[in-house]
Design goal:
By secondary structure, this protein is of the alpha/beta class. The chain has eleven helices and nine strands.
Length: 244
């Protein structure tokens, strides 16, 4: 946090101030640091994959894509819970190399494929379920919109997008674990934690609608989203309301 004053005044993130590059660029360039970061994320979110899988019903789905899913901790939990489900893990090439090692030792390796790619520009199309777990809080609003638009472009009408994040309370004075995480995001990355109304605005901009918010046994929620019906999207752009 020693870089926080400069972070606020100059706009550069902590890693840029201390090391000359954004965090994810540093991790991409240093394999050992990237592997250490993977282990940190797995440990930090230790009980969350089980909590998410317990909160959502995927019994109807055949194919799930974990977008930016790291080494696959959440996706393997999903596949273990639902034996008919096939999974695809999408992440940067260096992360996917490490994910393949992790997945090879799992019980679901025969139902899980990996894709090295860039979630800002392309997401595998046609899946039943897309997952963004602790992705959007890493990025500013413009970048989040690009990620959500890439997901929306890949989705079919039946598809569901599951956003896993800690949701900030709307009232400014309420204590919440996400407030400390918000400071971490401010110092280390360009992102932040958001309120539910802020997530709704991002979804609206990407042509997506929030169907429901699922609570979990962990300090995170799951936002279940769908493609906004064409009529609803047109009405939102023109300010008109549907009579139906």
């Amino acid at each position: 946090m020693t870089a926080l004053p400069e972070r606020i005044t100059c706009g550069r993130t902590g890693p840029e101030i201390a090391h000359g590059a954004p965090l994810f660029e540093l991790l991409k360039a240093d394999r050992d640091a990237g592997a250490s970061f993977d282990r940190l994320m797995t440990a930090q979110h230790g009980n969350e994959p089980a909590a998410v899988v317990s909160a959502v019903d995927l019994g109807w789905a055949d194919w799930a894509v974990d977008v930016g899913g790291g080494t696959g901790a959440l996706l393997t939990q999903m596949l273990s819970r639902y034996p008919r489900l096939a999974g695809t893990l999408l992440d940067q090439p260096a992360v996917i190399d490490r994910a393949r090692e992790f997945l090879a030792h799992s019980d679901v390796s025969d139902r899980c494929t990996t894709v090295a790619g860039d979630f800002f520009h392309h997401v595998p199309p046609g899946a039943d379920v897309y997952v963004l777990s602790h992705i959007l809080h890493d990025w500013d609003d413009d970048d989040c919109l690009m990620i959500l638009q890439a997901c929306a472009a890949a989705m079919a009408q039946r598809s569901r997008l599951l956003i896993v994040e800690a949701i900030l309370p709307d009232d400014d004075g309420a204590p919440h674990p996400a407030r400390m995480l918000d400071l971490v995001m401010l110092a280390v990355l360009a992102g932040r934690e958001r309120t539910l109304s802020e997530y709704r605005r991002l979804l609206d901009g990407a042509g997506l609608s929030l169907q429901q918010v699922l609570s979990t046994d962990a300090a995170i929620s799951v936002l279940e989203c769908v493609i906004t019906p064409r009529e609803g999207l047109d009405n939102a752009r023109t300010g008109r309301r549907s009579d139906r």
